[in-house]
Amino acid sequence: MAKRAAGRMRWDSVWLLRLLMSVLVLERFQLVAGLLQVEMAGRTQMVFLNENVTIFCKIRDSPHLDIKSMGITWFQKTGKSETYTKLFQYFGNYRETSQRGAWVSLRSLQKGDASLQLPRVQLEDAGEYRCELVVTPQKAQGSVWLKVVAQPVSNLSEQVMVKDNKDRHILCTSSRFYPEHINITWKKWTQNDRHFREFSKNITTDHIVKNEDGTFNITSHLRLKPSLEDNGTIYQCVVWHVSLPTIQSLDFQLILHPESEKKTDWLSIGMIVVIIIGLIILLYIFLKTRSVKCWKWCLLKRVCAHVVQLFMTLWSVVCQAPLSMEFSKQEHWNGLPFPSPGAFPNPEIEPKSPAFQVDSLLLEPLGKLEDERHCKQRLLEDKGPSKLELDQMTASSTHQQI
Ligand SMILES: *[C@@H]1O[C@H](CO)[C@@H](O)[C@H](O)[C@H]1NC(C)=O
Ligand SMILES: *[C@@H]1O[C@H](CO)[C@@H](O)[C@H](O)[C@H]1NC(C)=O
Ligand SMILES: *[C@@H]1O[C@H](CO)[C@@H](O)[C@H](O)[C@H]1NC(C)=O
Ligand SMILES: *[C@@H]1O[C@H](CO)[C@@H](O)[C@H](O)[C@H]1NC(C)=O
Ligand SMILES: *[C@@H]1O[C@H](CO)[C@@H](O)[C@H](O)[C@H]1NC(C)=O
Ligand SMILES: *[C@@H]1O[C@H](CO)[C@@H](O)[C@H](O)[C@H]1NC(C)=O
């Protein structure tokens, strides 16, 4: 009986010992697993194109490590590739780097930081990165998805569309961004409403264009035909892109200046009046001297031609003056319907189109020659002016032809 009891006790103790051991082993396992763990920058890490970046991989609780008894390997899987390629490896005194020039600072490694330094990130560098650490006898690994982005550079500019009914286009351009998806909207603040409100009328967005480096450009047009109630309206172009921490907004205020337009108006009207009065006086003098001789006719015609030419030149100067001002105004975003070529507020005094001006100037000398031949012929018949006068006239007419 006693023998039996002793045997049972032995059995029990063996079983107990086993249990104890297995618990210990389990605990040790847990300890091992808890000791070596790496931390990455979450599931994905967003980096900017062309920057020198750090892909995080840190040992939790950052222990002080003897780098001689550890190893680190970084792998990369980019694009459509199915396999991982080795980017960097270090163990013992052995170090291996790939052509990409990625590296891990050994000084940081001693402090448990195995982060990878990747110089001048390109769009092709996007993909999965895996960090594998061995601190004998333990092992740990972590991976992260690297997302490469480029921030849009946005800009407002202005364009006068000669083709499109001389409308003004305000362009909001965003350039060199990546990835392709972008959202450009327009908002408007008016004196009456005093809130920025989104609107979509008269807005067109161009097709996206790709740059050589793989980034994109896009332009959104706002077609404007400002009227008096638009004075003081603020227009805003709002750009949203995944690479931006907040939205980008660019705005400009429309300030109308009708007074300055009127000034140029009065100037041109005044000039026309002066010229017309001059012509009337000439005509009057001409009609008063009843005994008209042909050479007087010719002189009068020539004077008239000069006056018309002068008028044309002055007119073109008047027309061009506001045009050049328009482009210098661009930056301030003000000025009423920026006078575009030929767009005079009063249609009745609209100048002739440049094509018409060229035509009439070309035709003019031909008519003059015809007239002069005719005149000289009549002069001979008339026996009008003295020899001296005739000489003077021929001299001046040859001068004209030159
Ligand atoms: C990236 O690092 C290189 C040297 O490794 C340096 O010349 C360059 O200016 C750095 N570029 C940026 C954007 O920090
Ligand atoms: C904005 O666009 C205009 C016209 O395209 C250009 O002249 C100007 O240099 C641009 N400004 C910036 C800061 O890019
Ligand atoms: C995109 O915009 C940039 C900056 O404005 C310009 O230098 C580049 O030429 C543009 N690319 C295309 C394809 O138009
Ligand atoms: C663009 O932004 C507007 C307003 O923020 C939003 O209503 C619209 O859905 C966005 N469009 C896209 C394609 O994200
Ligand atoms: C849009 O443009 C047309 C023609 O330029 C104009 O008649 C209309 O008033 C514009 N609409 C708005 C809301 O500005
Ligand atoms: C437009 O507003 C500006 C100031 O906001 C003012 O100086 C200008 O006279 C206004 N123009 C018209 C036509 O009322």
TrEMBL record:
Protein's GO biological process: cell surface receptor signaling pathway; cellular response to lipopolysaccharide; immune response; negative regulation of T cell proliferation; positive regulation of T cell proliferation; T cell costimulation
A Pfam cross-reference name: V-set
One Gene Ontology cellular component annotation held by this UniProt entry: external side of plasma membrane
Alphabetical list of PROSITE patterns matching this protein: IG_LIKE, IG_MHC
All copies of domain Ig-like, residue ranges: 50-133, 152-248
Signal sequence, start to end: 1-34
Subcellular compartments: Cell membrane
Top-level division of the source organism's lineage: Eukaryota
Protein name in UniProt: Ig-like domain-containing protein
